[in-house]
Amino acid sequence: MNYTELLRAMVPEAALVIGALFVLTLDLAFGRRRTLESRLYIAVITGTVAVVAAMYGAFSSGLADSVFGGALILDELTMATRLGVLVLAWITLTLAGSTARLRHPAEFVAIVLFATAGFTLMAAAQQLLVAFVALELASLSLYILAGFDKSKPESAEAALKYFLFGGMSAAFLLFGFSLIYGLTGSIELHEISAHLAGHPPTPLLSVALVMVLVAFGFKAAAAPFHLWAPDVYEGAPVSSSALIASASKLAGLTLFVRLLWPGFGPGAGNVSTAAGAPGWLAIVACLSAASLLLGNFAALAQSNLRRLLAYSAIAHAGVMLLGVIAAGDAGNGPLFYYVFTYGIATVGAFGVIAVIERTSPCQRITDLAGLYRRSPLLTGCLAIYILSLAGIPPLAGFFGKFTVFAAALNLGGLAGPAGWLAILAIFLSAVALYYYLVILKQALVVAPAAATSSDPVTNRITVPADAAIVLVFAALVLVLLGLFPSVVLRIF
Amino acid sequence: MSLDPLPLCLLFSSALFCLGLIGALARSNTILVLLGIELMLNAANLNFIAFWRYGPVTSPATGVMFVIFSIAVAAAEAAVGLALIIAVYRHQKNIRLQEANRLKG
Question: Cβ of A157 and B88 within 8 Å?
Answer without folding.
Answer: yes
